[in-house]
Design goal:
The complex is a heterodimer of chains A (about 325) and B (about 290). Chain A has 13 helices and no strands. Chain A has about 325 residues and is mainly alpha-helical. In chain A, helix 2 crosses helix 13, helix 4 packs across helix 8 and helix 4 runs antiparallel to helix 10. Chain B is globular and about 70 Å long. In chain B, about 75% of the residues lie in helices and about 0% in strands. In chain B, helix 10 runs antiparallel to helix 14. Chain B is mainly alpha-helical. Chain B has two domains: about 40 residues; about 240 residues, MetI-like fold, CATH 1.10.3720.10. The chains are: A mainly alpha (about 325), B mainly alpha (about 290).
């Protein structure tokens, strides 16, 4: 019996598939997979190349930095283009929205991760994820028909009237309170990136080991002291990276901003008045651009947007690597 | 050392501050959802699913208008995108998880996240330069390519994490009975992580279905149904997010109403894919 068994096993082993099936199969398969996978890298590289080469006519004509700092964007008469107004608009709206959303977003993350009871955390968590997934056109739709008119009627006009009576010198900074402008776009942007920042921060909080909190509790810390001394310092890398990624989101956010910012292509921008950002100008003018130089200028704006996003994303990746504390429980 | 009373007071202040902030954040989010749902349901009728949009005057003279062509177009473009993105995304995910020692993997992970963080407009510009410009016309296919760029990094990441959930011991078991590596991957690891893979695809779908920016200059939009079957792929095609944008910025009252309807349809698509993804993911866990 024992003998039979051994024989069976040896015969099985002898029947092993030919080398070609194992060796060649592995080679072919891995090559195939690498070829498919490498496209992820190629896409980003290709994006840079394509945006640069299609934007080259504009970049060559106005110069790499000349295009960057040229304040004139005139597709109609002078046919002269410069990205400066849009860079200003993008930076102001995204930095301001980040400043507005930072504290509330972290607070919500602390609430869901540390304070709230489990059932409530579950609800807020799901709600935040759901809202983060709502397409930006839908938020833009709400912004156009509900938020902007409401803000205009309740706040902007009153602020404008008040400053007209008391501080006429403020008026040029405030701009026309038409409802569609920098302030509205910034607020909507803040509403849109809060769920994103919160979700990333909650992730960072969940990575903090329980022992860390328990140690702080054991020393007699109150809940806030635990959060302040044990949780936030531990999660700071994740929080910072999350904020950086949200910043990238705010820079690239297109539809809602294009629908609400009012689209004015010339500096100076005012607080309440219309303005423009890099993505919004691309979306608004690309379909209507007839002039070749106009088209390539828009793509050149895209190229600069690409560079900014690339830097922001790489910094986020670096922060995540640099600040993440290794040696913790990894399950 | 602060007194205990002070510390408790600070504790309470922070608690109130955090709860207030949470309410402050959650409220507008709920208001947005409520508005879209209420106004959207008010705008839904049967014409929406059977009629096409037509010219603006069509709505003004009171003839029925709808978004039938938009709904079909959304499915066409999104499924095209899925078909294009899935092989590459799966390949990248398999590479990241099954060949963890590969030299390119760290670069690929960073590049994948970067691509994911790139503004969707740029993906649209890329698809425009790669497909629309050579072909000479706006097309559903170019829209599919643009959305594929949106889906690719999401699928790659979710595939990686789905495959990583399979313990290494299972792979080792496969290798121990003499299977070559590629058979281990195709007949052991992938079948075992099926639910995770499907969840990833659904999430990628949910993300891409709401993207309007890349579609504005690729699939462009179309007020009418395509006359021929191929026209859905090679002609300009309407999609929900892009149509929603055009409706919202149009000057016609009736079209604004349709915009809300498009809004709730789009929201429905997104939420449904999320719910299905959750449902699939819950079925089996390792």
């Amino acid at each position: 019996m024992q003998h039979d068994n051994n024989k069976e096993i040896t015969s099985l082993l002898k029947k092993q598939r030919p080398l070609i099936y194992r060796w060649l199969g592995d080679r072919i398969f891995s090559l195939f997979i690498f070829a498919l996978g490498i496209t992820v890298i190629l896409c980003t590289v290709l994006m840079a190349i394509v945006l640069y080469s299609d934007g080259a006519p504009a970049i060559n004509k106005f110069g790499f930095f000349g295009f960057l700092i040229n304040k004139v964007w005139d597709p109609a008469i002078k046919i002269e283009f410069g990205a400066f107004p849009f860079i200003v608009g993008t930076l102001i709206t995204s930095v301001a929205s980040l400043a507005i959303s930072f504290v509330p977003a972290i607070a919500v993350a602390i609430f869901t991760a540390e304070y709230s009871p489990r059932w409530l955390a579950h609800i807020t968590d799901n709600l935040i994820n759901l809202i983060a997934a709502v397409p930006s056109v839908i938020i833009g739709l709400w912004g156009i028909f509900v938020f902007a008119p409401w803000m205009r009627d309740t706040f902007y006009t009153n602020i404008y009237m008040w400053s007209m009576d008391n501080f006429p010198s403020l008026l040029p900074i405030l701009g026309n309170p038409i409802g569609y402008g920098m302030a509205t776009a910034t607020l909507i942007l803040a509403i849109m990136i809060i769920p994103y920042t919160t979700a990333l921060t909650v992730d960072a909080f969940h990575k903090v080991p329980k022992e860390q909190r328990e140690a702080a509790y054991a020393l007699g810390a109150t809940k806030w002291e635990v959060v302040k001394m044990a949780v936030i310092p531990y999660a700071r890398g994740g929080i910072l990276a999350g904020v950086m990624l949200s910043f990238g989101r705010a820079i690239g956010e297109t539809m809602a901003v294009a629908m609400l910012i009012g689209n004015k292509n010339t500096l100076p921008f005012t607080i309440l008045g219309p303005a423009s950002t890099m993505p919004s100008v691309i979306v608004n003018e690309f379909r209507e651009a007839v002039e070749n130089l106009h088209l390539s200028s828009l793509i050149a704006v895209g190229f600069y947007l690409f560079i900014i996003s690339l830097v922001v994303n790489l910094v986020a990746a670096y922060i995540q690597r640099r600040f993440s504390i290794t040696g913790a429980r990894t399950v | 050392m602060k007194s205990l009373k002070q510390r408790y007071m600070r504790e309470n202040i922070m608690k109130v501050f955090i709860i207030l902030n949470t309410i402050l954040v959650i409220t507008p989010l709920i208001i947005i959802l409520a508005y879209v749902i209420v106004r959207g349901i008010g705008a839904i009728n049967i014409d929406l699913f059977t009629q096409e949009l037509g010219s603006p005057s069509r709505a003004m003279v009171g003839r029925p208008t709808g978004l039938a062509h938009t709904i079909i177009g959304t499915f066409v473009v999104d499924f095209l995108a899925l078909i294009i993105a899935v092989p590459f995304g799966l390949g990248a995910g398999i590479m990241l998880s099954e060949y963890p020692d590969h030299k390119l993997n760290p670069l690929m992970r960073v590049m994948n996240d970067t691509l994911n963080g790139m503004p969707a407009v740029l993906k649209g510009l890329l698809a425009w330069a790669l497909v629309v410009k050579p072909m000479g016309s706006f097309s559903g296919l170019s829209g599919g390519v643009a959305l594929a760029f949106v889906m690719l990094p999401i699928i790659a990441r979710s595939t990686e994490s789905a495959l990583m959930n399979i313990p290494w011991s299972i792979r080792e078991a496969g290798l121990a009975i003499g299977l070559p590596r590629w058979r281990v991957i195709t007949s052991v690891v992938i079948p075992a992580s099926k639910t995770g893979l499907v969840t990833g695809l659904l999430l990628a779908f949910a993300r891409a279905v709401g993207e309007a920016a890349p579609l504005l200059f690729t699939s462009f939009g179309n007020n009418y149904k395509s006359a021929t079957l191929l026209g859905w792929i090679f002609g300009p095609v309407d999609t929900l997010p892009q149509r929603l944008y055009s409706l919202a910025i149009s000057p016609y009252k009736h079209w604004h109403q349709l915009g809300w309807a498009a809004g709730i349809l789009l929201l429905l698509f997104v939420i449904l894919s999320f719910i299905i993804a959750r449902f699939v993911a819950r079925e089996k866990k390792y």
